[in-house]
Amino acid sequence: MASLNPINYGTPRRESDTQITLEIDGQSVTVPEGTSVMRAAIESGIDVPKLCASDMLEPFGSCRLCLVEIEGRKGYPASCTTQVSEGMQVSTRTDKLDQLRRGVVELYLSDHPGESLTPDGHGDDELLELAEKLDVTQVRYGKGRNHQIAAVDDSNPYFDFDASRCIVCSRCVRACNETQGTFALTVDGRGFASMISAGTDDDNFLDSECVSCGACVQACPTEALIEKDVVEKGMPERSVTTTCAYCGVGCSFNAELKGDEVIRMVPTKEGKANQGHSCVKGRFAWGYTNHPDRITKPMVRDKITDPWREVSWDEAIRFSVDKINAIRDEHGSGALGAITSSRCTNEETFLVQKLARAVFNTNNVDTCARVCHSPTGYGLNSTFGTSAGTQDFVSVEQCDVILVIGANPTDAHPVFGSQMKRRLRQGARLIVVDPRAIDLVRSPHVEADYHLQLRPGTNVALVNAMAHTVLSEGLENRAFVEERCDLDEYDGWRDFILREENSPENTEQYTGVPAAMVREAARLYATGGNGAIYYGLGVTEHSQGSTMVMGMANIAMATGNIGRPGMGVNPLRGQNNVQGSCDMGSFPHELPGYRHVSDKSVRDIFEKEWGVTIGEEPGLRIPNMIDAATAGTFKGLYVQGEDILQSDPNIKHIAAGLAAMDCVIIQDIFLNETASYAHVFLPGSTFLEKDGTFTNAERRINRVRKIQTAPAGYADWEITQMLAQALGYNMNYSHPSEIMDEIARTTPTFKGVSFDKIDALGSVQWPCNDEHPEGTPVMHVDNFVRGKGKFMLTPFVPTEERANRKFPLLLTTGRILSQYNVGAQTRRTANRLWHAEDWLEVHPSDAEVRGIKDGTLVAVASRMGETTLRAKVSERMTPGVVYTTFHFPETAANVVTTEFSDWATECPEYKVTAVEVRPCNTMSEWQRRYIDTREKQQQIAGDQSVRDPESVAAGFDAGDKEWEPAE
Amino acid sequence: MDSDKMVRQANQIAQYFSAYPQARAEEGVRGHIRKFWEPRMRAQLIEYHEGGGEGLHPLVSTAVAAIKAETRESA
After folding, report:
1. What are the structural domains, with CATH classification, of chain A?
2. With an 8 Å Cβ cutoff, are B35 and A618 in contact?
3. Residues contacting residue A174 through CB under 8 Å, at least 6 positions apart
């Protein structure tokens, strides 16, 4: 891949305090020690021919095209593998070198089709481009043995592998190894028989261990690996830099276009979060933006049992306003509320909470972080003083000990997972705390030192046991604690933790983790050098989620593992803009910047800016809104880009709450599950169709840039603005940059943020203010945000959700690499090839006693409900624990989850549900009723069906008959 | 909100703060409910407490009394 990429410097940048000066083609060049001659030349504007070299990969020296002459040295060394030295004199262009290079290119072309797969000149083929540059017009070796009849492997839905074009330079293999860390590719055979192979001889790319991250496609210099879209549509002509809308890593991409059509997404090397890497979702699974399921016209209906009626924007907005005003007149502002989206931009989220507070006149606004990282907000705010991950991602390069708790980075945050694996291959130690053996526990060249395979619901007992070990064995960093932390709080915590009840020997009865292993892991974290904690929803989605976050903050402070690169407490955020939506005042008790609504001085800022009075009382959280709706006191809800009917627990209760409302307004790109209960549907926009910013898990604010116009005509912020205007509020932004300017005016941590600054710097990490005008990569460096770090007590309180004879197993939930969250986007892409339905993972011993085999259809029943899905027998699980994903609405995993929740934030306890599993051959009664209801409630007048038949079927059309596999 | 759910959630808060000394625990429960519970939820809790408060953790009962007093003062 060559054409639109920025300069390829051939070898990675090196850091050194020592600078080396040399001469290249008569030009004096100074670079850090360790830099390759190739990089030194290219950085100085001197082009060096190359095929096997990439600045994202270590030098390899196989293609023999980057040869140079160095005075005093024999032969023609490869400039990629030759490091600079003081006074070195290098020539990159001589007649002899040109002759050698032409000869090499000619040899390569002798076993190459000689033309691009695209109709665009040399297309994406660097070999053809080089031949043109070196004026190689003829090949003298055309009749020898070659690979030109090799079959094309087109098994992958997104790219092809054509061995006839392959020069076996190993760039793909090295990208798979070094960048992605999957080690799926290899050079099979020797000499002439050398071929790139994915997996074994019997594997193709689709069946192999390849994770379709596309690093190999990006690395390939000859179109041997190439995107199908490029072959079909031709080479892109221009690019626009934007930010991925999937997980909280927030990868920067160049959207490459031909005309106005996106041809491919290529991760940008300058992207500070992803450093030029991507996963299968971000690079390839963006086709949903043009999916026929997109709703392109506003729709309304009086009753949720009526078919949808397509109307003009004017009518839809007027219809909404009439409903909202009627509710407000009859029931008051407290009967209204809004839900902001972690998939929308900061500016859009800010506007939705502003609409609620300034126009609806209520603090009833919440966001999907309620069901994922709200305990992070509570826990980190209590201990450190703010709700934010402490590090930037690149900090992992300085970790010595990595503690992964309740997170599965290689599936849920794959690009950061690759960065983490790279550091682990370099020798960092690894502790995994998880009921399930995630890939990090053991995968190629990565093996956890300790896998603390605890029982679901016992995180707090475990972290207390680790803290007990640290204190009882004198491993704390006393100097750090005395200098940086509140000592009274520390003393109280110390007394608490040193109680026998918190010892590893005592907590073993709850966690199931041997005390000796807990002690060894704690010793490693406390004494192994820079220790960093990375955690996910396996921490937060528990009845003690907030307690656990505080427990992790406690051990980080006690061991001094905070305030420098390589350390910290780092939440891995689920969605692209969870951090941002929380920052923007989406919680019912907080205004933007995490400031409580009861603080008059904060309300004054916004009241002056917005010209309204803001309530001083906290509003309703999402579950409270649903409760209030069933109680008859909450009547109208505006939901932007969320699907609470699929993502929130106890679906039956959510459905009842939604059905009880007078007006539910859904703004989304598809008719999602919640829309079945809506009265107004406002068609929204994807990340390709708007300007704005996302804030990733490292507080990095990245630009989202509009590439195409939404099919319904408006970006989401424009729709919110139309609604506000129609409700009589003067909201008149002409561009999202003006919204960010307002955020900066009102929110101290964003004071220095502007679109101009982000454009100039590439991205900015908040806090960005007078003290840190270019942002803050690592937080709490000299002081905690709250001043002194505060140790919080962390009593272990077992969840009320217990396994018993009737429900003897514990169900926990999570994600898989190829699907994302509720699946609305990824289910509408070819990613279905990898994961077309939710599976229930069951340990072999639990499966055997229940007569369950791989692929058996099973009913999963809890105290709340029952659903049916297919079983996968897996030793990843510990006996007594089963696991499923929640990507498919037909599975309705949240029919079985309970309403137990975190004590501080009401974040649902998705990770612990007592269940029984039994073989069965039909869908559950709930599923049957639900699918029937959904079809009726999503019908559009005049349309037979608006749904993709595949997404409806997935096996469920079978009725009482045996369920056929979705494949 | 269903009463059982409300009692459970209030008691969860109390269970957390009960790790602290009594005065701080009482203030912790009161402060948490005051800071995070919407007025309708607080009113429901007060009403439930006035109706006998069956099943409420003692710290919750103390917190409710304090919240009632605050509400009277601000009224």
Report:
1. 1-93 (3.10.20.740), 299-372+577-761 (3.40.50.740), 374-571 (3.40.228.10), 809-897+921-958 (2.40.40.20)
2. yes
3. A54, A57, A58, A60, A219
Task: Tell me the pLDDT tens digit for each residue of A103-113.
Answer: 999 999 999 99
The whole-model pTM stands at 0.94
Residue A231's alpha-carbon distances to A159, A221, A256, A576, in angstroms, are 9, 15, 14, 30
Question: ipTM of this predicted complex?
Answer: 0.97
Note which residues in 353-382 of chain A have CB less than 8 A from chain B: 363-364
Using CB atoms, pick whichever of A588, A793, A901 lies closest to residue B20: A793
E-assigned strand segments in A670-762: 680-683, 692-695, 700-704
CA angle (A905, A906, A912) in 5-degree steps: 120
Chain B: give the shortest CA distance to residue A401, in Å.
30
CA-based nearest distance A492→chain B, Å? 9
B8, B13, B38 ranked by CB distance to A620: nearest: B38
DSSP A556: H
User: How far apart are alpha carbons B24 and A815 in whole angstroms?
Assistant: 40
Q: Pick the residue of A464, A486, A602, A793 with the most B CBs within 10 A to test the interface with B by mutation.
A: A793
**For A132-165, how does the pLDDT look when each residue is reduced to its tens digit (9 = 90+)?**
999 998 888 877 788 888 899 999 999 999 999 9
In whole angstroms, give the CA distance from residue A639 to residue A739: 20
For A745-789, the three-class secondary structure string (H helix, E strand, C coil) is: HHCHHHCCCCHHHHHHHCEEECCCCCCCCCCCCCCCCCCECCECE
